[in-house]
Q: What sequence folds into this?
């Protein structure tokens, strides 16, 4: 099964399609600024769960964030867990630079 992932900036999400089908198999919603991309929601259609669609979304989105020199904020539990299991992407994670404390 081939998964093709593309950015749909007008919808603020990445879309995954399987084997050239027109329907969307999964999405990864985001909020992007000039310095940061926050992944806020990932959803895979039930018939494609467990078949690598989520991983393809994460890998493509994170590779594109790296290429654009963006930091990543993984508020979506799927993205946070995926990055935790793939240490080669942990350098992308956003680190707060604030020095404010209580």
A:
């Amino acid at each position: 099964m081939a998964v093709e992932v593309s950015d749909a900036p007008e919808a603020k999400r990445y879309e995954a399609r399987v084997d050239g089908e027109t329907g969307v198999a999964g999405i990864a919603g985001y909020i992007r600024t000039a310095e940061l991309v926050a992944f806020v929601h990932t959803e895979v259609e039930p018939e494609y769960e467990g078949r690598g669609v989520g991983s393809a979304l994460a890998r493509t989105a994170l590779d594109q964030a790296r290429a654009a020199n963006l930091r990543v904020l993984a508020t979506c539990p799927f993205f946070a867990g995926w990055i935790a299991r793939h240490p080669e992407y942990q350098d992308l994670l956003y680190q707060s630079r604030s020095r404010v404390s209580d």
Observations:
- The chain has a mean pLDDT of 94.
- The first strand starts at residue 3 and ends at 8.
